[in-house]
Amino acid sequence: MKHNSDYIDKVLERNAPSAGGGFSEEGLKRAEALIALYPKKRSALIPLCHLAQGEHGWITEECIEEIAGLLGVSPAEVSGTASFYDMLHLEPVGQYVISVCTNIACMLAGAYELLEAAEEKLGIAAGQTDTDMRFTLEEAECLGACDTAPCLQVNSRFFGPMNSASFDKLITDLASGALAGVVPPHGVLSRVERVFALTAKDTDDAGAIDSKEAGQK
Amino acid sequence: MLNEPIVTKRVELDDSHTLQRYLATGGYEGLKKALSMTREQVREEVTKASLLGRGGAGFPAGRKWSMLRQAPVSYLVVNGDESEPATFKDHLLVERDPHQLIEGTVIAAYALGVTQAFIFIRGEFALGIERLTAACNEAYGHNAVGKNIFGSDFSVDLVIHPGAGAYICGEETSLIESLEGNRGFPRIKPPFFPAVTGLYGEPTVVNNVETMSNLPWIVLNGGDAFAALGQGSSAGTRLFALSGRVKNPGWYELEMSKTTFRDLIYDKNLGGGIIGDKKIKAFIPGGVSAPWFFEEHLDLGLDQDAVAKAGSMLGSGSVVVMDETTCPVRASWRITRFFHRESCGQCTPCREGSGWLEKIMRRIEEGSGRPEDLDLLMDVCDSIAPGVTWPPQQTTICVLGPSIPSSIASAIRHCRDEFLEHITLGHCPYEKDHILTGAAR
Ligand SMILES: Cc1cc2nc3c(=O)[nH]c(=O)nc-3n(C[C@H](O)[C@H](O)[C@H](O)COP(=O)(O)O)c2cc1C
Ligand code: SF4
Ligand code: FES
Predict the structure, then answer these.
(1) CATH of domain A96-176
(2) Which residues constitute the domain of residue B236?
(3) Which residues in B lie closer than 8 A to residue A104 (C-beta atoms)?
């Protein structure tokens, strides 16, 4: 995957969840550009939560306050909304969040056996993070890749079909860094950024489609 | 089986997601043609096509569009939340042909006179979001989105909006709430249609990813050509997602109505039959919200009306096959657990009912069930969806609630003996089954 900004390169360098802190200076610029994409600021709430998670691996308190400030809402509204969503973490999680799907198609292909092997391999139960903040294991609902059942995601990247042997190998490869090009740090949703300058809204009245505009291309 | 696929013609090419490949294979020609037509003409073609919404409810797109309240500002929101268990078709279209989705979206925006469109993509589809974002950048650069598209006087801005993990956000009013930066709580109806009051209180059309992806072909080839495929109102092709105990799980683009479930599951070019050539026990015809079908339904066509008449729904087009080695108690328990986890919690029957059902189902599967549990289950189902009919009666804000009983009622009605066997044996008769692992504990 080709990245299209220095900012993404920087975010990809993070190799552990951070302990806290707010947005980086560049992150704040991104946040403002994201907000400008929407007719109403508040619509950027979830994208900003993803942005925060991309910088820290989770959504820190400082980021919640900054998001609230940027959007003109209270911090409680930001955390109240964020807490509704499974992907948004308001507390630190491991460097790799492993989500094993156990829904119907995966279950019929042995997902619970896979989850059990994963628990054994990592020495933690689903829902837990290991002590050195390396791995978080989750039991997931259908991930929309049922043709590769049983499947899982690591930081939202797909692997499947899996069995206990391929799971062991996956853990080895993650630990050695062999999958760094495939699996970005937790929270980095898209390694491709929108080119913000392309927004039609930037040019005054893109809204007036029915009024014939002068100077058509 | 198909002379020419409509939405999957590029997906198997390595670079199918790039602008270069898209242009080399006829990309954006539909949009160019649409821009040379009037808005009314484009809408007319879509109405003639009988394009049924591919998101689950199967509402005709042309009719939905005609309901859009006239207002100074209106919006188009494309639903790519795809979280109905066993559904993975939009995932394919977003990842493998993002430009087709963008082209369809811009065509729809033009036909509707909308200048701001959003594509809401399920957050877990990270690669899809990357590809779609890259495609969106390319499309702006190519002047297929943005200002004065292809030199016309039409401009539209497109925002790719990531979800954050919540099944309920697929429900269109919940999707809108989420897009407004709120918890994904479905809105109370009426108003029944976002076309009247939607995003920011303005008229909004919500359409599924696959629905949009059909538009370039429809504009290029005409609504009549689309309607000529399939039968009756089930026109065109549809992307079916096949999973479960079959030899070849995967997606299959098939002409509507002309293929039967038996073909889909057993044809050697399609599902290829059941793993180990076991006997089929049941199959789900359209996502886990749908009541199950059984052997006697295999010869039904993949047709919206035929499936509805037989008591279920084609829904999201996802078919899950269960064979004789599948424990129906465990399968319906897992589906119920899903609804319990994903209920947004606004309505008591849905929130509490799903929890009770899940607990009772689990105790039966674990071997501590009681004979009266079967009546109790049906009783709880009846409180969620009075009469446990199909289509269900609704007591809740959205139809997630009334969908909960589908799997349990199907399993109890057709596999009652297996439920009783669990209860009398004191354990699940399928030895390999142990559900008590991980978070399920
Ligand atoms: C609980 C629930 C979940 C839904 N999930 C989705 C979904 O993931 N994707 C989708 O397109 N439609 C979903 N729908 C249907 C939408 O509400 C809506 O009907 C659809 O997006 C309209 O698009 P269409 O007419 O093109 O099908 C869901 C509905 C309900 C009640
Ligand atoms: S039916 Fe369930 S999911 Fe739908 S609004 Fe009510 S509680 Fe929420
Ligand atoms: S059931 Fe596991 S990905 Fe769909």
Answers:
(1) 3.40.30.10
(2) 231-323
(3) 85-86, 244, 284, 288, 320, 331, 334-335, 338
Query: What pLDDT is stored for residue A3 in this prediction?
Result: 74
The tens digit of pLDDT for each residue in B18-45 reads: 999 999 999 999 999 999 999 999 999 9
Q: How is residue B133 written in tokens? A: 């974002």
State the pTM of this model.
0.96
Which residues of chain A are modeled with pLDDT < 70?
A: 1-2, 199-217
Q: Does A191 sit within 8 Å of B438, measured CB to CB?
A: no
- Do A192 and B134 make contact, defined as CB atoms within 8 angstroms? yes
Strands B280-284 and B318-323: antiparallel
Pseudo-torsion of CA B417, A142, B270, B12, nearest 10°?
180
Q: Domain of B168: which CATH number?
A: 3.40.50.11540
Reported as a single tens digit per residue, the pLDDT across B141-157 is 999 999 999 999 999 99
Cα dihedral sign for B93, A12, B164, A138? positive
Q: Please tell me whether residues B429 and B335 are part of one structural domain.
A: yes
Pocket flag, ligand 2, residue B149 (CB < 6 Å): no
What is the architecture, at CATH level 2, of domain A6-90? Orthogonal Bundle (1.10)
- Indicate if the alpha-carbon torsion angle B264, B265, B271, B273 is positive or negative: negative
ipTM score here?
0.96
Contact B150, B143 (CB under 8 A): yes
CATH number for position B285:
3.10.20.600
CA torsion through residues B329, B331, B337, B343, sign: negative
Q: Which amino acid is at A119?
A: E
**For chain A, first and last CA: distance in Å?**
34
